[in-house]
Design a protein that fits this description.
Radius of gyration: 22 Å
Oligomer: single chain
Number of helices: 13
Number of strands: 17
Structural class: alpha/beta
Strand content: 15-25%
CATH topology of the largest domain: Rossmann fold
CATH superfamily of the largest domain: Thiamin diphosphate (ThDP)-binding fold, Pyr/PP domains
CATH class of the largest domain: Alpha Beta
Helix content: 25-40%
Order of helices and strands: EHEHEHEHHEHEHEEHEEHEEHEEHEHEHE
Low-confidence stretches: none
Strand order of the largest sheet: 3-2-4-5-7-6-14
Mean pLDDT: 96
Length: 407
């Protein structure tokens, strides 16, 4: 059966995200403004006011409160949404940890923006990367179509795994840039995403405590049933994140069958078949790296691109499989684990070690605070890495692209 026809619209990334939320019939939207995500919730507010979205729109006093509203509403069984960026995400930090700990299927868009201080409202990925250990699934979109489609997939993933999902996309580069976007019909999305079935039944005649103080060791409840201690609950959350790899891949496959578009599941590749040097990145930077690889190919260098779509859970084995045969992976991080190196670079090295080896991995820091990085600069860095490996120079220190420290 062919996928149904879909209307094409010219949308910004933020508009695409809001369209996805509307199609998923979110019931509670919590909103607090911060650049560059504000247009997402502004669009949803207009939809609620116009009667296009049957939802409770809650304007709150802070990002911490926004996530608190999502926690409360999700606990009652509602399908919820919020969005934020940068310092707003940091302000949510306490509740970001609470949400997966309570196993609530919240979906949030993180419109990636540099962290302050100093103040900068332009794009890098430091904000979401700084929360990579909070227990959220993190999916990175490379264009506006993928933003809409990933929001729809995110609700299926979150409600299947009972783990919240953060849909990450680059501020301004995608959030405020217009692109053609195919918008599925409401009927088609309803067929793909059934109404949420609440996991906890709340009954005033049978009151209960939720997420009460949990001690280290298992202990019996009031009925004498032995309940998990804190460590067991952490183990179960980790198991859910590990199991989410298969769920993410399956949901993307089923989405492709329903709508005619797939996004690679956990990761995606461009011209990897015989690649000697592979450019690795997440989000729009990975999309732009495809032009770099094509340029290198025209110069006689076998180059490819490996895009990281799921950063948490990290698809270590899938990335290792994709890199078999390559001599070097040039990893471009739009963020930094201070005192070490780029986080994608670190995680890829760890994954290759666990997989029994792989190509050399060279780290590059690029595009912090909106610093321009173009396809030719990525191509030059990848060619430099390949030359380094061919010369047998051994380990290479992390390099910063287009950083003028003497300015």
């Amino acid at each position: 059966m062919n996928p149904p026809a879909q209307a094409a619209s010219i949308l910004t990334g933020n508009e695409a995200a809001a369209a996805g939320v509307r199609l998923c019939r979110a019931q509670v939207v919590a909103a607090y403004p911060i650049t560059p995500q504000s247009p997402v919730v502004e669009s949803l507010c207009a939809s609620v006011a116009a009667g296009e979205l049957d939802a409770e729109f809650v304007a709150v006093e802070s990002e911490h409160s926004a996530m608190t509203v999502c926690i409360a509403a999700a606990t009652t069984g509602a399908r919820v949404f919020t969005a934020t960026s940068a310092n707003g995400l940091a302000y949510m930090c306490e509740q970001l940890h609470w949400t997966p700990g309570a196993r609530l299927p919240v979906v949030m868009c993180c419109v990636n923006r540099a962290m302050a201080a100093p103040w900068n409202v332009l794009n890098d990925q430091q904000d979401s990367m700084s929360q990579r250990d909070a227990g959220w699934i993190q999916l990175f979109a490379r264009n506006n179509q993928e933003i809409l489609d990933t929001v729809v997939q995110a609700y299926r993933i979150a409600e299947t795994t009972r783990v919240p999902v953060m849909v990450c996309y680059d501020g301004y580069v995608l959030s405020h840039t217009v692109m053609p976007v195919c918008v599925p019909s409401q009927e088609a999305v309803d067929g793909f995403l059934p109404p949420r079935a609440p996991e906890t039944l709340l009954d005033p005649d049978c009151p209960r405590n939720l997420n009460q103080v949990t001690l280290a060791d298992p202990r019996p409840n009031e009925k004498g049933q032995l309940c998990h201690g804190y460590m067991e609950l952490r183990y179960l959350l980790q198991e859910a994140l590990e199991g989410a790899r298969a769920v993410i891949a399956l949901v993307d496959e089923e989405f492709g069958a329903a709508f005619g578009r797939r996004w690679g599941g956990l990761c995606w590749g461009h011209r990897l078949e015989d690649a000697e040097v592979v450019l690795v990145a997440a989000g729009s930077l990975a999309s732009g790296a495809c032009a770099s690889a094509d340029t290198l190919r025209s110069q006689g260098i076998a180059a490819g691109v490996l895009g990281v779509r799921s950063y948490r859970p990290f698809p270590g084995q899938e990335l290792a499989n994709a890199l078999r045969g390559a001599r070097v992976a040039a990893v471009f991080d739009k963020s930094l684990s201070y005192g070490h190196e780029g986080p994608i670079c670190s995680d890829l090295k760890s994954a290759l070690h666990s997989a029994g080896g792989g190509p050399a991995v060279h780290g590059y820091i690029a595009g912090l605070g909106g610093r321009d990085v173009n396809a030719s600069e990525l191509a030059q860095a990848a060619a430099h890495s390949l030359e380094w490996v061919r010369a047998g120079k051994g380990p290479k220190p992390t390099e910063w692209i287009n950083c003028r420290i003497d300015a």
